Amino acid sequence: MKEDKVIEQLNKILETELAGVVRYSHYALMVFGHHRIPIVKWLRDQATESLDHAHVAGEHITTLGGHPSLKIGKLVETHKHSLNDILKESLDHERSQLENLRALLKMVEGQSIYLEEYAREMICEEELHVSEVEKMLRTQPK
């Protein structure tokens, strides 16, 4: 296992999670309308979960002897704040993190059980997020 490459990928995951904290916190402030209260709660829960995920990624980085990044991943302000726009941006963010996690899994598979299990667990969680957001964007069942 190339630890420097794994640390680099974990930092990418960390940065994306930190971007999620900012992104979901911002979205929670921008929701208006009849369903505001449950949606704001959901978005704030997502921000908290992103911070928790960032902490775990940072712990893995330091376990490997690396230095956690102070950078924050990609943040785009579209100034579109309809609920559908927020959910579509959220979906793009979650899919991007899925790519990061799948790349990590490829790097550590068969090399480190604890990192492999971490990557698999996170992929599972992100896939669940993607499916939930996709359901939220649907108007009717298939």
Structure overview:
The chain has 142 residues and is mostly helical. It has one domain: Up-down Bundle (Ferritin). Helices cover 75% and strands 0% of the residues. The chain has helices at residues 3-29, 36-63, 83-108, 113-137. Helix 1 runs antiparallel to helix 2 (36-63), helix 1 (3-29) runs antiparallel to helix 3 and helix 3 (83-108) packs antiparallel against helix 4 (113-137). The protein is elongated.
Indicate the topology.
Blueprint: H1 3-29, H2 36-63, H3 83-108, H4 113-137
Helix pairs in contact: 1-2, 1-3, 3-4
Brief overview:
With 142 residues, the protein is mainly alpha-helical. The protein is 75% helix and 0% strand. The N and C termini lie far apart (43 Å).
Task: Looking at this protein, list some descriptive labels.
142 residues; mainly alpha; Ferritin; 4 helices
How many β-strand stretches?
Answer: 0
What's the helical proportion of residues? over 70%
CATH structural class: Mainly Alpha
Principal-axis shape equals: elongated
Mind describing the biggest β-sheet?
none
CATH architecture name: Up-down Bundle
Spatial separation of the terminal alpha carbons:
43 Å
Low-confidence stretches: none
- Number of domain modules: 1
- Estimate the mean pLDDT confidence: 95
Give the SSE string.
HHHH
| CATH topology category name | Ferritin
